[in-house]
Amino acid sequence: MEMKALSKASTIYEVAQRAGVSIATVSRALRDSDLVTADTRAKVRAAAAELRFTPNRSGRSLAEGRHAANGIVFPDLVGPYYAEVVLGYEEAAAAVGSSVLILATHGRADAAAAVQELAGRVDGLAIMGQTVGDDVVRDIAATGLPLVLLARDPVPGVDTIRTRNERTAGQLTEHLLGHGHRGFAFLGDPAGSPDVAGRYTGLAAALRRHGLIPPAPVPCGLDLDSGERAARGLLTRPPDAVVCANDEIALGVHLAAERRRIHIPGDVAVTGWDDLMAARFAHLTTVAQPMRELGTVAARWLHRRIGERAARTGRPTAVRRRVLPTQLVVRRSCGTHPSEVHR
Amino acid sequence: MEMKALSKASTIYEVAQRAGVSIATVSRALRDSDLVTADTRAKVRAAAAELRFTPNRSGRSLAEGRHAANGIVFPDLVGPYYAEVVLGYEEAAAAVGSSVLILATHGRADAAAAVQELAGRVDGLAIMGQTVGDDVVRDIAATGLPLVLLARDPVPGVDTIRTRNERTAGQLTEHLLGHGHRGFAFLGDPAGSPDVAGRYTGLAAALRRHGLIPPAPVPCGLDLDSGERAARGLLTRPPDAVVCANDEIALGVHLAAERRRIHIPGDVAVTGWDDLMAARFAHLTTVAQPMRELGTVAARWLHRRIGERAARTGRPTAVRRRVLPTQLVVRRSCGTHPSEVHR
DNA sequence: GTGAAAGCGCTAACAC
DNA sequence: GTGTTAGCGCTTTCAC
Question: What is the CATH number of the domain that holds B107?
Fold first, then answer.
């Protein structure tokens, strides 16, 4: 049967009429309810196909009282870091039938409003890092919307997933000390993010254990350019080792050193954090984080909370906290140990 | 005034009651209609704030007949490539008040169903690369939903944005020929994506112009591992130059060469495509694409089409096609020219 | 300027 | 099994 192109999406009423049944039957047939005969189902499916019918999600959501969608809020997607988290989140959410809404705050001033609006569109929300203040988190949590915080300091009553910073930063420091480095610099702003704070704390603690005085952190944005800029000052009289809050900063230092013909690790050791793909090719010693898993776990936790809420089954599970392990990845930039295997 | 935590999102009715007005007035006040006095507006705002009221989007969407959300479909987010596009898209969409829904198909078999379902949630949809077949695109287009295809062969009646492949691949080839390379290999599957096909075509055409016989392409996935695997066979007897369909493949070749102590570019020249961050640190000659812009333009076009549709203003604008320029980025991996500036 | 009421497209009782 | 119908939460005429 020839069809003319439709300029407007068709509704369940049209499908019902075409199939010669009621809208209730269409609804049932299309959602594989076992309250319809195979015959009816086929008839309805045929009509729906002819009309290229796709149920309007707003109608369905309103009736069901759920959105079948989750949201994730992150500062940006420029580095590969957040992209990985989002991907893991999307994958796990899709696996349980949820769509995913993303929101990049870009440090916008109206981020709070955007997150609030997002909260009205989803059944659960993951909030990463320093995107909005604790007040916003508390407000949203107060509405009962399932929430999970990612790579961010906990807020009472809200689930949180983080990655291990202090301990691994300690290991990294020990490793650098093992290379004989004694003069350290730290590039990054502990006040800007709890992750950075944890990394600095771990470094400082390890140095103190060895009787060394930790350097004051050199405040620095988390991107390549900031790293390069910050390195300019630092490299006029390079320390033994520059511990960077993340890979992008370290890569920026790498570029600055290259430009000045300062050799890494001969003249100065450099380390990063995140294990980006670029780190491998810059031979950067760094710390690998399970970013994908961060997203996956967040989506699973949310799914569970959403289920709990829908079931209205008494008190929900206690607040959950998890710290995912991270792993030191030794490459050349921290100093050369003949005994070490570089990959 | 003290408030107890709410376990359920409040509705416009509760706000209306608290403010002592009708729901119509609440609706108006909250959306800054000038049909309410400043006094009333203040009263309503206060009530809404106390109740932590966020309008339910399903209700609003249903009433307005629009979702205020756009979707974007991509195969994956693993490489930094798609992440950039998505980011550009999100940014531009957010700027015009649209939320963004993402869908990664991961080569899933039920991708078509997922895309169809997504189509029912959005006012416009961007579809990237080889995520779903043309039949799905045509079906969705037939419903009248504004659509834009990204990095993909056009479908009649649907807007398309691509990046330049053939011409720049020709420039790249000329450059390699200028280094004196004559024996070429191409890593990538032209049948797998129109982008790859264009790059291969550009290479082949340039070689023919110089009286050389183009090599048959070596089929290869677009990720690092595939590149490394494909390189293993190739590097037993390396050609002069290996032109890779993207950076990840080229970086895989880089790793394989490193392992075999084959020197780039001394023993073999290698080039990529995309200009990922890692390419810079691997000194990879490649081609930069305006990925962010791809997303931005897509979101803008969709916004325009959505406007046209809502206005029902006669015939819509003609189908649009755009090819965004790409740019050769020369680094060390293609061969050393003393005269060239490397960055 | 404000309120009453009619939908928007769908699901889910409830009736038959 | 299938149909009827009452909402879901919101926007938007239409009265006043």
Answer: 3.40.50.2300
